[in-house]
Amino acid sequence: MTANPIKLTIDFNDPELEPEQRDEQAQRLIAELSDMDEVETVDRTLNPNFPVGAKSMGGFLVGLLTAEVNVGNAKKLMGFLGDRLSGKTIELTVEANGKKLAIKASSREELDYAIKSAQDFIGT
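The structure assignment produced for this chain is given below.
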């Protein structure tokens, strides 16, 4: 196991939702994750292509959030995400030990598979 944090990026990308609705889902999850002791950091994802000098309010990617958690707390976080994201269309990216795993899910079954794959990937 490593002391390096595991980085999770969650993209609420349901094409049937308006950008504002996807962003609301991300912000609700950020609020919930912020209350968890297991999560080291969580925030909206900055837009790397945002014009220099533009107002910072628009500098975030719509519907995206990034969280960091240590390996010891990853399993609990994955369980929490399984409960909270069931039935939502998302893309989950997990970065650990210099490697990246990206998984899409739009049903409970796909989300369960994504969570299991992420747990196997990080070794929890």
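Interim note for the steering committee: The CA atoms of residues 81 and 115 lie 8 Å apart. The first strand starts at residue 6 and ends at 12.
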